[in-house]
Each structure stands twice: as C-alpha cells, then as structure tokens.
Amino acid sequence: MFIYLVGYAVEKRLLIAVGKNIKEVFGFDVRFSHINLPPSLGYDVQRKQYRARDLLNYLSRIYYPDMLKLVGLFGFDMYEEGLNFVFGLSQLGGRHAVVSVYRLFDKREKVFFERVYKEVNHELGHTFGLLHCKRPGCVMNFSNSLLEVDAKGKFFCEKCNKILPKP
Ligand SMILES: [Zn+2]
Ligand SMILES: [Zn+2]
Predict the structure, then answer these.
(1) Which one of 7, 98, 104, 156 is at 20 to 30 Å from 50 when CA atoms are compared?
(2) How many domains does the chain have?
(3) In CATH, what number is assigned to the domain containing residue 159?
(4) What is the pLDDT of residues 68-94, one digit of tens each?
(5) Ordered strands of the 67-74 beta sheet
C-alpha cells in the first residue's frame, strides 16, 4: 500500500522532500500522482482563496487499489467557512487530506520545508483516526499559527504513534 502525493503549484523539490518525510515518519512508500483539477474549483473571487472543503471533496473521488492515503499539496491559500485560512483539512479516519503551503512559507528553505512536513503529517494523522494531542512536541498538537507550527515537531508522540498502522 502506498501513500499518494499530488502537488498543485508547488515546487518539485518540495514535493520530493515531503515524500521522503512521509516515508521516514510513517514508513509507507510514496507514489507521486498527477490529477487535474477543474479550473478555479473552490475559488472565491472576493477572498482570493480556495475553499479547502471543495478541494478535499474533489480529491476524495480519487482512489487507487494500492492507495492507503492521498495527500494534495497546494501552493495557494485555502480557507474554511468561519476561518480566515486553514493550513490543511482532512477526513478523520478517511483516506484523503489537503494541505496548503501558502502561509507556511519562509525564506529559509529548511524552516519552510519543516513546516510543510508537520502539516502534512498532522493531516495524515487525522486520516489515520488521530485526534489532537497536547503532548509537547507531538505533531498532532493543534496549530493555528506559524508560532504553533514551529513549536511542535514533525513526529508523533509515543501514544499517537501506537495508533498508527505499521507498514
Ligand atoms: Zn488537526
Ligand atoms: Zn500525540
């Protein structure tokens, strides 16, 4: 079984690095896929943002027989009803997740990439049924700001890790 990764308006370097991170943290092999999105799907002209739910719903229709999970990594800004923005959205215990790198950017590539790993791992954690966790450093800590993203690690605490399936 593979974790599928699809990129939209993100650098190939980043996509490959995220794939390596998934393999390192979850142990599953990663497959890169190309899925076309209908132009301006979920785009709100007034907000100049994409509605995360629409992107997630669209990707949710995609399924491969060897697919354990699928993550869509987006270069553009996303929002949800009632929120100015979201870093990501996923189906709890489902197969699909979306992450926006837009607000995670930093001039220092290492910092930027680390943030993306954390948000991808966090959303994938939700697809494996994990809820938010308050243990220091655990990637399942809720983060709504860069400060909170930077404060946590990219790995799961022991308790969360026990719930994750092993390849
Ligand atoms: Zn969360
Ligand atoms: Zn935890």
Answers:
(1) 156
(2) 1
(3) 3.40.390.10
(4) 999 999 999 999 999 999 999 999 999
(5) 29-32, 2-8, 67-74, 96-100, 88-90
